[in-house]
Amino acid sequence: MRSLLGRWQTWAGFAVAAVLLFGVAPAVLSTFRLGLLGQYLCFAIVAAGIGLAWGRGGMLTLGQGVFFGLGAYMMGMHLKIADAEIRGNSVPDFMQIAGIPVLPGYWAPFASPAFTLLAIVVVPTAIAALLGLGVFKRRVKGAYFAILSQALAAAMAILLVGQATLGGSNGLNGFRTFFGFTLSDPVNRQMLYFIAAAVLLVVVAIVRQLMQSRYGELLVAVRDGEERVRFLGYDPANIKVVAYTAAALFASIAGALFAPIIGFITPAQVGIVPSIAFLIGVAIGGRTTLLGPVLGAIGVAWAQTAFSERFPAGWTYAQGLLFIVVVGFFPAGLAGIGALRKRRARTKPAAQPVPDPDPDPEPEKVTAS
């Protein structure tokens, strides 16, 4: 009975989210604000994967900008080739300015939409799997894994800046079409938002299934007692690799959607700072819950836009202060406050009955002498 009730609550939650994302938001938000919400949903997709890897698996992934950037740049390469073909050019516009007359060899396959979509899924997944096996098999964890993943994000940003065939520090920008649809058309921009919303719901459903499955229990067991799991006959490295790879895949898909929604992608959006920003939203929302990372990422991104419009120089300090307060006083995030209250209410001792101050005395027994 309880499982049936939980299943109905889950479906009801997805229905409410679908109504808000597909019905209410397009009706009340302008085209510009709807595009901003689409960007926030892309961040939420990344956060859902981080919640799985970090919240359930204990892997502090400080390098999700690497996979986010891979997906964004691969999508951007296809969009730039498509724009060049429409204008009758053999190379994108920025290559003409840089004096590159021929399309580089590694660009050519991305002229195919099917290859691009396949690469967005396969390339980051393969890289994450190989990297995860190499790291976790050597039992690298904790702060060492966090530093390694952060170094990868920094290395990728530096590498992209030095690549003239990828736009250098300017990145790829000026996208005009998306698989044949004109991006300047508000209807098509709304279509991009709907795609991001649908992908977010699918990703949340996948993460929930993983968390509720036997694998999810093993992942939590690895986080809390890796040596005990190894003693029971399981390889913790393989369990970690699955979560790390899934998080990388979600980040790549989010980046591929982010590029056409925002209209450009630069090395500054895939380095250390964006990777930490993803983590801040997850920590504030509640990394061990299902919806905490998603809502936290959307909330932090919205707050950044809202407050930076009024206080451009002060938002960074406010964001850092909020992160310190949450981590220091609410380790489970804002989503854990309600659970903490319920736990305290359950453990609160019941009130003891107050004895009657003046009980009726028993009548004295008179014995015959």
Automatic annotation (TrEMBL):
The record, for InterPro entries, names: ABC_transp_permease, ABC_transptr_urea_perm_UrtC, LivM-like
Keyword Plastid among UniProt keywords: no
Supply the alphabetized keyword list: Cell membrane, Membrane, Transmembrane, Transmembrane helix
Q: How does it sit in the membrane?
A: Multi-pass membrane protein
Going by the entry's taxonomy, the superkingdom of the source organism is recorded as Bacteria
**Molecular function, one GO term:** branched-chain amino acid transmembrane transporter activity
Q: Where in the cell is it found?
A: Cell membrane
* A Gene Ontology term for the protein's cellular component: plasma membrane
Coiled-coil blocks: none
What the entry lists under Pfam families is as follows: BPD_transp_2 (PF02653)
This protein's name: Urea ABC transporter permease subunit UrtC
